[in-house]
Structure formats: structure tokens, C-alpha cells
């Protein structure tokens, strides 16, 4: 006869203790929390700190418009290498507008962004008269930057309201500076030299319609820029 094996007792079940505030669960996420902020997030957070920010403490705009302007300012500073970036909450003193529709930026790009066709012809003529070949390095000009989001719907009337509140050329003594200048200077030395070099060609800027750089931000933080004029301009020649 074969003896059948005796039944074995079931193994003891572990006692489960629910995690409470007095006995937290030791998961990796809770043991090593990561509270670090990105450079952009830190920049926006500092702008809301009265002790760190020099901006208007009570901007009369919705927070999303203010944050959108700061996001674009961060992009043109660290991605496009602009300098002397300022945010404007009030219309230009040389206009009669009562208010700005939203915060507007101004700054100095590292190189010229736009050359009018008539100025292009004049520059090439001067190069030929001086016996020089190629295209010279033209001095950069201060530009307006209009922060927008891709989900917004814009019409000509909205653009007209923005242009009516802006001067042809941004004034360097208006607005609030967003980034410290190198070596504690109010303005970068390069921008002062560029302004002096650009005195003889500034007539093209003053005599032409107003222009701005339309910055369009997508949900993935991609920023695309377009040059927009207040009116009809002559097509550029390639």
C-alpha cells in the first residue's frame, strides 16, 4: 500500500499595513522628491517675487498674458541671443493710445532682422561706389515683439490696436528691463556702438510703416517669429 502524503498547512499571509501620514510608504518618488524648476519656470517665479523682480507689481493684465510675455522674453534672450530686453505695460509716450492690449516686448537682436528694399538698393550702390563686394554687416535695430499663442484668433482690428499704441522705434527709456546687463551696465556696449553706426540709415526706419516681430508660441513651447508691418510695404528683392 502506498501512503498518501499528509496535507501541508498553508503558508502564512503577510500582514498589509496601509500607509498613513504617520507611516508613509517608502517609494522612490516619495523618498527622493524632485522639486527643481526649469530655467523658464524659475524666471517666471522670480518675476512674481517682489524682492527679486523690478517689474510692475500690479500689471493690469491676466496672468496668462503676463506669463506668455515672459516665456517669449526668455526665448529671445537665451535662444536668439537678444540683449537689452524690456517689457512694456503702457503705450509709447509718442502715441495717443490709452492702453496696451497686452504686454509688449522690445529688445536688440544680434543682427539686423529686416532691410527695406529701397535701403537694400542704396546699400548695394554704396558698396559699388566704394569698390567693395558682398553685403556689409548692418547695425542691428531695436524691435518690437508681440507675444501670442497659437490657439488665439487674430484679426486686422486687433493688430491695428497694437500698432496704434506703439511708436515707430522702441524708446530705450521706456518699459522695464528683464535681464541684468553685462558688467552691471544699463545697456550693453555693443548696442551703443550699433546705435551710433545706424544713425545714417535710421531714416529708412522712420519713413516706413511700423513693424513688429510676431512671436507665436505652441503648446510644446515652440516659438515661431514673423515680421508684421502696419500697412502695405514694397516686396523684398532676393
TrEMBL record:
Biased composition (Polar residues): 20-30, 36-48
Keywords, alphabetical: tRNA processing
Keyword tRNA processing in annotation: yes
GO cellular component annotations of the record: tRNA-intron endonuclease complex
Protein name: tRNA-splicing endonuclease subunit Sen15 domain-containing protein
GO molecular function: nucleic acid binding; tRNA-intron lyase activity
SUPFAM superfamilies, per database record: tRNA-intron endonuclease catalytic domain-like
Compositional bias annotation for Pro residues: 1-15
Annotated source species: Salinomyces thailandicus
GO biological process, one term: tRNA-type intron splice site recognition and cleavage
Gene3D superfamilies, sorted: 3.40.1350.10
InterPro entries, alphabetized: Sen15_fungi, tRNA-endonuc_su_Sen15, tRNA_endonuc-like_dom_sf, tRNA_intron_Endo_cat-like_sf
Keyword tRNA processing: yes
Residue span, tRNA-splicing endonuclease subunit Sen15 domain: 71-238
Top-level taxon of origin: Eukaryota
Region (Disordered): 1-63, 173-205
Family, per entry: Belongs to the SEN15 family.
Amino acid at each position: 500500500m502506498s501512503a498518501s502524503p499528509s496535507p501541508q498547512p498553508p503558508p502564512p499571509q503577510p500582514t498589509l499595513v496601509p500607509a498613513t501620514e504617520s507611516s508613509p510608504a517608502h517609494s522612490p518618488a516619495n523618498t527622493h522628491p524632485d522639486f527643481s524648476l526649469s530655467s523658464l519656470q524659475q524666471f517666471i517665479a522670480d518675476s512674481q517675487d517682489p524682492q527679486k523682480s523690478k517689474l510692475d507689481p500690479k500689471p493690469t493684465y491676466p496672468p496668462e498674458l503676463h506669463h506668455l510675455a515672459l516665456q517669449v522674453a526668455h526665448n529671445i534672450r537665451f535662444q536668439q541671443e537678444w540683449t537689452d530686453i524690456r517689457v512694456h505695460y503702457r503705450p509709447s509716450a509718442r502715441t495717443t493710445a490709452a492702453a496696451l492690449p497686452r504686454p509688449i516686448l522690445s529688445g536688440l537682436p544680434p543682427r539686423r532682422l529686416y532691410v527695406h528694399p529701397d535701403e537694400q538698393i542704396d546699400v548695394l550702390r554704396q558698396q559699388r561706389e566704394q569698390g567693395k563686394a558682398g553685403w556689409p554687416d548692418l547695425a542691428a535695430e531695436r524691435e518690437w515683439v508681440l507675444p501670442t499663442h497659437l490657439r488665439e484668433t487674430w484679426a486686422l482690428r486687433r493688430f491695428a490696436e497694437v500698432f496704434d499704441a506703439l511708436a515707430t522705434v522702441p524708446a530705450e527709456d521706456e518699459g522695464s528691463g528683464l535681464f541684468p546687463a553685462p558688467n552691471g551696465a544699463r545697456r550693453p556696449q555693443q548696442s551703443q556702438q550699433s546705435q551710433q553706426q545706424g544713425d545714417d540709415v535710421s531714416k529708412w526706419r522712420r519713413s516706413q510703416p511700423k513693424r513688429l516681430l510676431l512671436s507665436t508660441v505652441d503648446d510644446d513651447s515652440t516659438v515661431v517669429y514673423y515680421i508684421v508691418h502696419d500697412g502695405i510695404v514694397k516686396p523684398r528683392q532676393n
